[in-house]
Specification:
This is DUF4189 domain-containing protein. This protein is an alpha+beta fold. The chain has 3 helices and 10 strands. The longest helix has 24 residues.
Amino acid sequence: MKHLDKMTKFCFAGYLLTLSTFTLACNPGQGSGQCGYYDNSGYHNAPIGSYSGNNYKQPTRVIKLPSRYGAVAWSEGGGSGMSHNRLSEKEAAEAAMQYCKNAGGLKCVIAAEVRNSCIAISTGQAKNGSGPYGNVATGQPEDTAIQNAINKCKASGFSDCKILDVSCSIPTLP
């Protein structure tokens, strides 16, 4: 009789374990657990994201930001203009040209344009003492644009190279 009691207890424990496994494993109506989830299109038999073994991988979220544009315009007779964070290349160029004209430039031309990057203007003296002369360089991040402008100034044979201005046109979260 004692043997039967042990067997009965063992079977009852097995029954409870089996029952709890089926009862707690998945409740599709709640949209929880590893069973699936609900969204606007109905019930799905897989969780949001994906499983690789026991490691849950969060779905990748892509946020598309609109590009930003910048430009530099200058005139040989003096005057320069810089625009940044414009929504189009055309808008950036037009703004830079207008700033150049407002600064006294008579024959302004676009010297550089960027999309999602930075522009730096450097100035330096020629070896014969004439100048200052300017160079424009681009790069990202800002430090790279600055270093590129200094290097371009030195490569042009100028001395006493300095940064005149730097501006970045980088998309940002609203």
